[in-house]
Write a structure and sequence with these properties.
Keywords: Disulfide bond. This protein has helices at about 5-10, 80-100, 105-125, 160-170, 180, 245-255, 265-275, 360-380; strands spanning about 1-5, 30-40, 40-50, 55-65, 135-145, 150-155, 170-175, 190-195, 205-215, 230, 235-245, 255-260, 280-290, 295, 325-330, 335, 345-350. It is built from 8 helices and 17 strands. It folds into 3 domains: about 1-125, no CATH class; about 135-220 and about 350-380, Hepatocyte Growth Factor, CATH 3.50.4; about 230-350, Mannose-Binding Protein A, subunit A (Mannose-Binding Protein A, Chain A).
């Protein structure tokens, strides 16, 4: 269920009249810009100002169960939960702006308090993490990967091809620069190919092709040959050794990876299949609660930053200090467990670079040299 409310149409403008906020002229005190409800929670984007100075800007998430049809301050109401919650927050902002206009000393206190609230809200839902801001690194010139293609197009600019890659969530791209195909006798159907997956150590799907250059978000370290690609999501591997969460986390970090983020249906379903194919019932993932607080992902985001949940019946447990970690099951559910339990863990490789030329083929070259040496020894 999803609803949206336009405050202008509802007449819920905070400073809709001169008398609304301690002598402010109409429109001087700002208003809510957007209010929406998804499932069991309501999200607000708020911007309130007085006399041209912004004194409140922030984002709220309200759980509907807080209101129980009685409003934020416990007063009975016949409004639906969405309107009830929104009007309650509006009332709070009105009171704040009124206080702001009373005393200079009080004004300072309110501004400092609100500024802290805004920073706290921002820190809970990051938008810039290592896993979310990848970069395509040039891996090998005159090589093309034959891995599956998500999308393809004709661009003369590498930047345009990279943008298409980000849009389609490709893990790698093949790009044919103008100088490569202009001097070649062979035609090029598409200059930009966005790939579902990235090459792992050995580059087993790479072929010599003077028309193309190969780029990947996984340039350093090179994904291990046993890494599993989940198209458009990333490169993952399961550490099957049973150990507590702390030790498992360290082992992920040692190979430039992190415990996996499962805060979406696509990730939960795909990684549950990975567990099933590995003959595992469950494994630690990157969600945990510290000191009994809300569950936080490894990138620092609170679980409330997303609406998706896959809790198994009985989870999360109320005693979060004891059941402070989360496991993903092959049945596509989350279960809260003690972090001290000994279990496998699923890691996600962190995209990075720069690329060291030739490192993609290092294991292939090493194996070829070993085979050659053995053959020479047999001849002798």
């Amino acid at each position: 269920m999803r609803e949206s409310v336009d405050w202008a149409n509802m007449g819920c403008v905070i400073a809709g009249a001169d008398t609304a906020i301690g002598g402010c002229r109409s429109g001087d005190a700002g208003r809510f810009w957007h209010c929406s409800m998804v499932s069991d929670r309501i999200s607000f984007s708020v911007d309130a100002s007085a006399f041209g100075a912004t004194i409140f800007s922030g984002h709220f998430t309200c759980l509907l169960k807080m209101f129980d049809m009685r409003g934020f301050f416990g007063k009975p109401t016949r409004m639906n939960p969405l309107a009830s919650c929104c009007m309650s927050i509006a009332s709070f902002i009105k009171s704040t702006v009124s206080c702001w206009n009373r005393k200079k000393r009080m004004r300072r206190k309110i501004i400092l308090s609100i500024a802290h609230t805004t920073l706290t809200a921002k820190s809970k839902c990051s938008v810039d993490t290592q896993l979310r801001t990848p970069k395509y690194h040039l891996m090998e010139k005159c090589y093309r990967s034959k891995l599956g293609i998500i999308s393809k197009a004709n661009y003369t600019s590498l930047i345009s091809c990279q943008r298409l890659g980000f849009e389609k969530k490709g893990l790698a791209i093949n790009f044919s620069p103008r100088e490569a195909w202009a001097d070649s006798n062979e035609t090029v159907d598409y200059t930009c190919e966005v790939l579902k997956c990235a090459e792992a150590d050995g580059g087993l799907s790479m072929v010599n092709d003077s028309r193309y250059d190969y780029y990947s978000i996984y340039a350093k370290p090179i994904p291990h040959v046993n890494t599993t690609c989940v198209p458009t999501l990333g490169m993952f591997f399961v550490i099957t050794k049973r150990q507590n969460y702390t030790l498992g986390y360290r082992q992920c970090k040692n190979v430039s990876a992190l415990p996996v983020d499962v805060a979406s249906e696509q990730r939960t379903d795909a990684l549950a299949q990975l567990l099933a194919s590995s003959s595992l019932d469950m494994a630690f993932v990157g969600l945990r609660s510290k000191n009994g607080s809300a569950f936080i992902s490894v990138n620092g985001d609170a679980l409330d930053c997303t609406t998706y949940r896959a809790w198994a019946p009985g989870s999360p447990r109320k005693a979060r200090k004891k059941f402070d970690c989360v496991v993903l099951t092959k049945q596509r559910t989350w279960v809260s467990v003690p972090c001290k339990n000994n279990l496998p863990i699923v890691c996600e490789l962190i995209p990075g670079g720069p690329y060291k030329r030739g490192s993609l083929f290092a294991s292939r070259i090493k194996k070829h040299n070993e085979t050659t040496t053995e053959s020479q020894s047999d001849d002798e």
